[in-house]
Amino acid sequence: MRIKQTTLGALLNQINGLAGASALAAASICSARQTFVQAGLGEDTVYLYTYEAAAPAMVVFLKGEGDTVLATGSFMLNEEFACDSQAALEGSLPMFSATVAVAK
To answer: For residue 32, what pLDDT is reported?
Structure first.
């Protein structure tokens, strides 16, 4: 399980890193991380929030021991990463072995 968590936790850095060092550095400055207790998180989850006139934000929720959850979030600054539809995400994520479900 630790390998999966490490891979999922690094997803946003990997996406931003594909845009170069400047995008990765800028995104790391605008990141947040919080550990909290929340019952009911069934599995590690990623939320991608998209906006019409702003950079998308991604929040990764990693399930810890007991009911602890580690949430890490930042902006996605890779403009080449297609995320404006479910089909675009499904085309962009195969290298990360991620599945996509869209919630509005």
So the answer is: 92
> CA–CA separation, 16 vs 1, rounded Å?
24
Beta-bridge mates of residue 95: none
Question: Distance between CA 71 and CA 58 in Å, rounded?
Answer: 10
Token duo for residue 96: 């990360």
Residue 54 has which token pair?
Answer: 């702003």
The mean pLDDT values, 10 residues at a time, for the chain of 104 residues are 59 87 89 92 86 90 90 90 79 69 64
CA 94 – CA 97 distance, rounded (Å): 5
Is residue 14 within a helix (H) or strand (E), and if so which, with residue range?
helix 11-17
For residue 79, the 8-state DSSP code is T
